[in-house]
Specification:
Blueprint lengths: L2 H17 L17 H8 L1 H4 L2 H10 L4 H15 L2 H9 L13 H19 L7 H8 L4 H7 L6 E5 L5 E3 L2 E5 L1 H8 L9 E2 L10
Helix pairs in contact: 1-6, 1-7, 2-5, 2-6, 2-7, 7-8
Length: 205
């Protein structure tokens, strides 16, 4: 599947999901620690709304810390943009060429898919990411992925129960492929998403 086509489809679907949320859901917590739905949505569209010089300026103000910069920008933008504007920023930029700095186009798909799951899984919406998009991302999971996102999967073997994919060695940890992708991206999940002796290690408090 063409990755840019997949990205555009993902952004449109997530925009529709956001458009359909009740007002109180925008202030619900997500799998991104400390961020509500509105902060995640604001972060997802930052690359469309900020020029490169502005990103560089914001990074300089954060003394070079990308985490500090993205957190501050997400909180500030979430406070001033309406929910309609946040949803529209995804729909209107479905074909935007943005990708994370220094990374490939697959990382742009990962950014959209994982942050979309940060919202939909936390809210219990039951959204299923299409298999072709998941496979693109699952094929890219490696030791560098785990290091970049701070994921500790030592001693476990991820095993999807809805498609043919495994990763790692150790005690089996079974779940839906999209939930296992979240583990590889450093997330913890709500109870009931995983099966295995060590599943409690990956459950959100």
């Amino acid at each position: 599947m063409d990755i840019r086509t997949a990205i555009a489809a993902e952004r449109r679907e997530l925009a529709a999901l956001l458009d359909g949320l009740p007002a109180d859901s925008w202030d619900a917590p997500t799998l991104c620690a400390g961020w509500r739905v509105r902060e995640v949505a604001a972060h997802m569209s930052l690359g469309f709304r900020y020029s490169f010089p502005r990103v560089a300026w914001e990074l300089a103000k954060a003394r070079g810390s990308l985490d500090r910069m993205t957190d501050r920008c997400a909180r500030r933008d979430a406070a001033v943009l309406s929910t309609d504007q946040l949803a529209a920023a995804l729909a209107d930029n479905a074909n935007h060429p943005w990708k994370p700095p220094t990374l490939g186009i697959e990382a742009a798909l990962g950014h959209d898919v994982v942050h979309g799951l940060d919202i939909s899984v936390a809210l219990g919406l039951g959204r299923r990411v299409p298999e072709d998009r998941l496979r693109i991302l699952l094929e890219g999971v490696d030791a560098r992925t785990l290091t970049f996102f701070g994921a500790d999967l030592d001693g476990v073997r991820l095993r999807a129960d809805d498609l043919d994919w495994t990763f790692g060695t150790g005690t089996p940890l079974t779940g839906a492929a999209q939930d296992l992708l979240l583990l590889a991206y450093g997330r913890r999940l709500p109870p009931g998403h995983l099966r295995g002796e060590r599943c409690d290690r990956f459950v959100a408090a």
